[in-house]
Amino acid sequence: MKFYLIDDDRNILNVLKRIITDRGLGTICGCAQNGRDGLEDFEREKPDIVIVDVLMPEMDGISLVQKAKPLLPNTAFIMLSQVSSKDMIASAYEAGAEFFIQKPVNSVEVENVIRKVQDSLNMQRTMQKVQNIFMTDMNAPMGENLAATGNDLISQEAVASIKTILQRLGIIGDTGSKDILAITEYLISHHEQMEETTLSELCGKFSSSPKSMEQRIRRAANAGLVNLAHLGIEDYGNDIFVEYSNTLYNFEQVRREMDFIRGKGEKHGNVKIKNFLNALVSYSMERREYLL
Fold it and tell me: How far apart are CA 25 and CA 129, in angstroms?
């Protein structure tokens, strides 16, 4: 993967270069000591990952990410800062950052964070490939592709990966988790997306009371959101919080739930159930490396 580094401290840039190069994490496609220069290079270099300092002259890191995201929607941003304020970390995540690293830079932490971001990028790219395959299958002779791959996709490993995610969210014991497994297994084996159907229609394939099944699924997904929000309140750097607050869930909604729990907001966070289920399917596909 290609990295672009931005920090007004040249020593930090050199340290990051050495870590990325020596540990075989990727290649450096560019560096800058201020946000404006970096922003000018992005369209040409098209980096996969940008590591940027929060506090810089001319343009701070958060402003840079806000301006760069529309230009590089598929690029991940890692932010560096000597300040560990929760408000600043929250602002970084809301701007679109994937991870937040506190200075002074630690080589082990930097490598771990980069590998997590690479995993997240691979998952997003897998999701896109899954969507492309779904579109291809729709145009293929009826049943041809499904017969060839359906039995393989729905496997012990795929189910196990989804169970692991539900366990990490703290909802594996919830009644709705069984319903979530049933729906995601069906989507995988039939090469379908939630955009092609409604949750109510899917639930009708498994239950004589689809409305009750749908309610159980929504309750379980919401419970996962609440658990994730509690993790974020305790530690913004929690691995589970960082990984799923921007993939299975929408960070803005997770933050809203966090504010509600703290008594700072009047509304709970909402779950986009279609995105939640599609992301679970993509995680299971990625873990089995079908498309990588």
Answer: 23
State yes or no: pLDDT of 145 exceeds 50. no
Cis peptide before 104 (omega within 30 of 0): yes
Task: Judge whether residue 181 has pLDDT over 80.
Answer: yes
Flag whether the pTM goes above 0.85. no
DSSP 78: E
Query: Distance between the two ends of the chain, CA-based, in angstroms?
Result: 14
Dist. CA 98–CA 234, nearest whole Å: 18
User: What tokens were used for 262?
Assistant: 């703290």
Distance CA 119, CA 76 (A): 11
Name the nearest CA neighbour of 69 among 90, 95, 35.
95
Say which CATH architecture domain 2-105 belongs to: 3-Layer(aba) Sandwich (3.40)
Tokens matching residue 104: 């002074």
pLDDT single digits (tens) 21-54: 999 999 999 999 988 888 889 988 999 999 999 9
Tens of pLDDT, residue by residue over 98-126, are 888 888 888 998 998 898 888 878 777 76
CA of 230: how far to CAs of 75, 90, 162, 245, 256, in Å? 28, 14, 21, 12, 12
Domain boundaries, the chain: 2-105, 121-287
Pick the closest to residue 177 from 167, 186, 192, 187 (CA basis). Answer: 167
- Kindly list the distances between the CA atom of residue 157 and the CA atoms of 89, 152, 174, 247, in Å, as whole numbers in the listed order: 35, 10, 21, 20
Q: Calculate the dihedral angle through the C-alpha atoms of 238, 240, 243, 245, rounding to the nearest 10 degrees.
A: -90
Give the pLDDT score at 187.
Answer: 84
* β-pair type (99-102, 2-6): unpaired
Give residue 73's pLDDT band: very low, low, confident or very high (50, 70, 90): confident
List, in sequence order, every residue forming a beta bridge with 2; answer none if it has no partner: 27
